[in-house]
Design brief:
Number of helices: 5
Helix content: 25-40%
Strand content: 35-45%
Structural class: alpha+beta
Distance between the termini: 56 Å
Strand order of the largest sheet: 2-3-4-5-1-6-7-8-9
């Protein structure tokens, strides 16, 4: 199995409410990871997560519209700190792109609401799609709910019924011919739709 060299968070975002910010700090309850908080100007906060091996990551949270927003860009090498950040990222529904770098290739993970939506492998020869999330349940539900043809058939049945009512009330031969022509056209449409 390939040894991961580093993990790089690029253009990633965490958006936390005040309650989630408290949960975030409580989640940093790991004997190997310590944190400290620095309060900066304009309600910004810097949370420094430090692994006992010495590697640390700086998370800058800015208060925006009642939430704390962290736009994270960092490179991590230590596997335990990398795993810890990934767990936080998934738990608090992070968005963005994460590069996992190996000797000779890089795996690119695209996250949406904390879940992996796509994985690409990049190497010297190019890139290839490894995984892409598809919501097949939702696609099937939309397909089953698609009732355009059924609605058109129901409309044609209603038209035929009203034409038959008109035919019963018709008084002249020309009226009957016109109604019969409309009935023939409606019946042929019904055959095509069915």
């Amino acid at each position: 199995m390939a040894q991961r060299l580093a993990t790089e968070y690029v253009k990633t975002t965490l958006i936390l409410s005040e309650t989630q910010m408290d949960e975030f700090l409580q989640a940093v309850d790991d004997p190997q990871v310590h944190y400290r908080i620095k309060v900066l100007d304009n309600g910004r906060q810097e949370i420094v997560l430090e692994h006992i091996a010495g590697e640390e990551v700086h998370l800058f949270f800015e208060a925006k519209e009642g939430a704390f927003v962290c736009e994270l860009t960092c490179r991590l090498v230590h596997p335990q700190l990398t795993l810890f950040i990934r767990q936080l990222f998934v738990r608090f529904k992070g968005e963005g792109i994460v590069y996992r770098m190996y000797q000779g290739f890089t795996m690119v993970y695209f996250y949406n609401e904390g879940a992996v939506r796509k994985i690409m492998e990049k190497n010297a020869e190019g890139s290839r799609l490894v995984f892409e999330y598809r919501n097949t349940v939702q696609e099937l539900q939309q397909l089953f709910q698609h009732q355009k043809v059924e609605n058109e058939i129901a409309d044609i049945y209603n038209l035929i019924n009203s034409l038959l009512d008109e035919r019963n009330l018709a008084r002249t031969f020309s009226e009957l011919e016109q109604i019969d022509d409309k009935l023939r056209m409606s019946c042929s449409k019904l055959t095509l739709e069915a």
